[in-house]
Specification:
Helix content is 30%, strand content 19%. The chain contains seven helices and eleven strands. Strand 2, helix 1 and strand 3 form a beta-alpha-beta unit.
């Protein structure tokens, strides 16, 4: 049974958000967490649930292809709309597939070798052939990922934001990769930022942000924050 506590933000009545942290190729964990979310919904039905994945589906873990395939197939929970955000690892992957040599090198170094292997692509094969070797539907899914999502008093984004900059003027690179000074900023951002990107052993709840990357690929657990009204709780797999 989920334990609910006071949240730093508020969602409209009847809305519940399930936001899942960085997956990094841990397809079995993701499947398990989706089952846990479905069980919570069955125990506690709500009018308007929403599932959000915060990005970094690929790299490092054993089954990037399985993660992408599961999400590309459509909403994993019947009847629950789903928003899939882009992470810095998907961004690097796309740049590599589109022929940027530096990004291809970066991708191999930061987990792309494992990702390519999960698609049965030899990471030492000519880089010019990677794009053609991947399923077009998987690549189309990655290209179609959203950069951020707003719900009530919350902003969902992969890494964070730069304080004092309007959302529409935020740099894409900051939204995907920022750590400092975002993580140590103590003043309000104008909304509560729900983010991943920076792994911690447990979820982090601050007055201005909620961090949900709990290092599933590094031996931790995959975390989902559950937001409803002025409450929050966590589900793990």
């Amino acid at each position: 049974m989920i334990e609910l506590t006071h949240a730093p933000g508020i969602l409209p009545s009847g809305r519940r958000v399930y936001a899942v942290g960085d997956v990094h190729g841990c397809a079995d964990r993701l499947t398990e967490l989706h089952h846990v979310i479905a069980e919570d919904l069955a125990r506690r039905p709500v009018d308007a649930p929403l599932l959000i994945h915060i990005g970094d589906y690929v790299d490092r873990g054993p089954d990037s292809a399985g993660v992408v395939r599961r999400l590309a197939a459509g909403p994993p929970l019947p009847g629950v709309p789903t928003v899939n955000l882009i992470g810095n690892h998907e961004d690097t992957m796309l740049r590599a597939l589109d022929g940027e040599r530096a990004s291809a090198t970066d991708w191999l170094f930061t987990g792309g070798r494992e990702a390519l292997a999960s698609w049965d692509v030899d990471p030492d094969s000519p880089r010019e052939g990677w794009l053609a070797a991947l399923p077009p539907s998987d690549v189309a899914f990655v290209r179609g990922l959203s950069l951020w999502h707003r719900e009530g008093g919350y902003l969902f984004v992969h890494a964070g934001i730069r304080a004092g900059v309007p959302l529409e003027r935020q740099e894409r690179q900051d939204l995907l990769t920022i750590r400092q000074p975002f993580l140590t900023h103590e003043s309000p951002f104008g909304f509560i930022v729900v983010h991943g990107h920076t792994p911690t052993s447990n979820p982090v709840v601050k007055p201005n942000r909620i961090g949900i990357d709990t290092g599933a690929v590094f031996g931790g657990r995959l975390t989902c924050v559950v937001l409803e009204g002025d409450t929050l709780g966590f589900l793990r797999a």
